[in-house]
């Protein structure tokens, strides 16, 4: 499903986020994309990019061929052979690669391919633009989840945004790394991300490492997300409105972006029709990330 969702996600960005970006002097430039691939996915993703007509604004980075990856993993004290879960490994590889490859002087949007800009009336994400315009350099804005994945079904009432109680410094409560905006000047360093990863992975794998406690969270599955949650806390972070930026399957007239594989599966043909062959040429854009990830920046 990866290439299919990547295609739909890129179409949604081009159809709804791009016009909003071009309409404001705050950005006033074309988006670029960077996609992380591996040896297995590289050719499939390249085909998607060519199909979308975005090859002039997209960079592919093959992490299997990235000569610096071993050093990044070693800095975090991680041996790839010790992590059997594919999703957990890519979560770690991606966040370390972000610190290495993303240009800290630019605005960057870390976007999962299960996220679509849209809504019942297909409005452009005006409130998102308003939020990021209000950030100071060094701040982040992010989509929230009130509990780690697979947690809410055990409870009848809404829960507070999850945190890591053992961490004594600032953090971004409830952050999910599938939709995170990094303002220009916000610098993620490999050293900092590696230290946060190392700290999280040394926590005892018990439910109490998260608050509220999570009985079904595999220890390393979202290690990259938790490392990002801690690293971004230092500069300050703003949670996006949950009614407009939805982690779930419920669409309303207020929805401007939604993370839902179910919605994405239904959206592809509609977006292709709405785009009507429209493409933007020239300008500057730089990062989309594969393995269910997209990185976008201006």
Describe this structure as you would to a colleague.
It is a single chain. 34% of the residues lie in helices and 15% in strands. By secondary structure, it is α/β, with parallel strands linked by helices. The protein has one domain (2-297). The strands form two sheets. The chain has a seven-stranded mixed β-sheet with strand order 2-1-10-3-6-5-7, with helices on both faces. A three-stranded mixed β-sheet has the order 4-9-8.
Strand content: 5-15%
Count of spatially separate domains: 1
| pLDDT averaged over residues | 79
Structural class: alpha/beta
Q: Point out poorly predicted stretches.
A: 273-293
* Count of individual helical segments: 8
Radius of gyration: 18 Å
> What order do the strands of the largest sheet run in, or round the barrel if closed?
2-1-10-3-6-5-7
Query: What global shape is seen?
Result: globular
Q: Total number of β-strand segments?
A: 10
Order of helices and strands: HEHEHHEEHEEHHEEEHE
Report how far apart the termini are: 27 Å
Helix content: 25-40%
Report the major sheet: 7 strands, mixed
Structure summarized in a few sentences:
The chain has helices spanning 2-22, 42-52, 69-75, 86-101, 126-133, 190-201, 223-233, 261-275, and strands at 32-37, 58-62, 108-111, 115-117, 140-144, 175-182, 237-239, 245-247, 257-259, 294-297. The chain is of the alpha/beta class and 298 residues long. Strand 1, helix 2 (42-52) and strand 2 form a beta-alpha-beta unit.
Topology:
Layout: H1 2-22, E1 32-37, H2 42-52, E2 58-62, H3 69-75, H4 86-101, E3 108-111, E4 115-117, H5 126-133, E5 140-144, E6 175-182, H6 190-201, H7 223-233, E7 237-239, E8 245-247, E9 257-259, H8 261-275, E10 294-297
Parallel strand pairs: 1-2, 5-7, 8-9
Antiparallel strand pairs: 1-10, 3-6, 3-10, 4-9, 5-6
């Amino acid at each position: 499903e990866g290439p299919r969702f990547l295609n739909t996600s890129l179409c949604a960005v081009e159809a709804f986020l791009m016009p909003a970006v071009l309409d404001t002097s705050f950005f006033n430039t074309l988006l670029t994309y960077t996609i992380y691939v591996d040896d297995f996915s590289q050719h499939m993703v390249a085909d998607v990019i060519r199909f979308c007509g975005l090859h002039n604004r997209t960079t592919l980075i093959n992490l299997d061929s990235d000569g610096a990856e071993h050093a990044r993993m070693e800095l975090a004290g991680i041996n790839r052979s010790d992590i059997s879960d594919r999703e957990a490994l890519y979560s770690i590889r991606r966040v370390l690669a972000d610190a290495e490859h993303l240009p800290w002087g630019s605005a960057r949007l870390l976007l999962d391919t299960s996220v679509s800009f849209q809504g019942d009336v297909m409005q452009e994400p005006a409130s998102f633009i308003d939020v990021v315009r209000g950030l100071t350099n060094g701040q982040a804005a992010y989509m929230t989840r009130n509990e780690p994945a697979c947690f809410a079904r055990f409870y009848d009432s809404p829960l507070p945004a999850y945190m890591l109680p053992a961490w004594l410094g600032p953090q971004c409560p409830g952050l999910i790394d599938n939709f995170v905006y990094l303002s220009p000047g916000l610098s993620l360093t490999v050293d900092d991300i590696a230290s946060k990863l190392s700290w999280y992975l040394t926590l005892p794998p018990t439910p109490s490492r998260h608050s509220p406690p999570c009985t079904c969270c595999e220890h390393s599955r979202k290690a990259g997300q938790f490392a990002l949650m801690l690293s971004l806390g230092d500069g300050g972070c703003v949670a996006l409105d949950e009614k407009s930026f939805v982690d779930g399957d419920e669409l309303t007239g207020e929805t401007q972006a939604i993370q839902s594989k179910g919605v994405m599966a239904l959206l592809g043909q509609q977006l292709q029709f709405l785009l009507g062959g429209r493409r933007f040429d020239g300008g500057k854009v730089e990062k989309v990330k594969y393995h269910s990830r997209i990185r976008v920046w201006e």
